[in-house]
Amino acid sequence: MSEQASYLFSTRTSHHLAAKIAEHYGQEMGKIIFQEFSDGEFEPVLDQSVRGGRVFLIGSTFPPADNLLEMLLMIDAAKRASAKSITAVLPYYGLARQDRKDQPRAPIGAKLVANLLTAAGATRIMTMDLHADQIQGFFEIPVDHLYASTIFIDYIRSLNLENLTIASPDMGGAKRAKNYASHLGAEVVIAYKERKKANVIEEMFLIGDVEGKNVVLIDDMIDTAGTLCKAAQILKEKGALSVRAMATHGVLSGKAYENIENSMLEEVIVTDTIPVKSDCTSKIKVISCAPLFAEVMKMVHEHQSISSKFII
What we know:
Protein name: ribose-phosphate diphosphokinase
Shape: globular
Keywords: ATP-binding, Kinase, Magnesium, Metal-binding, Nucleotide biosynthesis, Nucleotide-binding, Transferase
GO molecular function: ATP binding; kinase activity; magnesium ion binding; ribose phosphate diphosphokinase activity
Number of helices: 8
Distance between the termini: 28 Å
Structural class: alpha/beta
InterPro entries: PRib_PP_synth_CS, Pribosyltran_N, PRTase-like, PRTase_dom, Rib-P_diPkinase
EC number: 2.7.6.1
Mean pLDDT: 93
Low-confidence stretches: none
Order of helices and strands: EHEEEHEHEEHEHEEEHEHEEH
């Protein structure tokens, strides 16, 4: 057991998730004051001593950019308050889709965020289902990369679906789908898509047979839901009995809620890494990732191995 004190703080937009994490962790949230100026500038102030302690700062860095800036300011505050270690708990790692230079003069946003977090003073990163695994290599500090599969696989099993098939909505998620399928003893199919531009699909083709199968689509995030809804339509046209979708991060921008409600998807399961408007459609089900984060945070604090938490 660690004798070092631990402290939990949260950004404003992730407070609901952080409160659940704190409950499972068995500790109250730390006190923090947000001072705001009339021009929109804000200043987070830790309202208690953290000297010599292990600080966990919880906050997903989805847009707007203020969420990332808030996390950076909190890290800086903890560093200047003489915290011994500072773990940035980012259930959703923003800008992760910018993980490589895929066209001339393009930024690598995920690397820039890594640099900013490290420069601010973070000594450890904890996140879940990065858009690209290689983002872990952007850091020179430890990264605990958790997977929602530890939550989703149990849910899929609870459905007791016959002729289960796992599907990936694109080629990039083929490895993820294969890993799910190997744990569930299911087959794998892949939807191959071609885009003209971001969030706009030109064509989609199915690789594999889904006739008479109950299909579960697996992805790391749902943005506009265009890909998932198109994939569900093709799967049903090819004879699938039912189509569900599971994604770690419910970004749900644009017409996502409308697209899901009008789609052939029976249900869409996401975690609460990003706040979800579950009242906009009856098809969305939210499973909390708070118990997983709380358990891993506790294990990190007590210097225990967390390898048992990596199913995929």
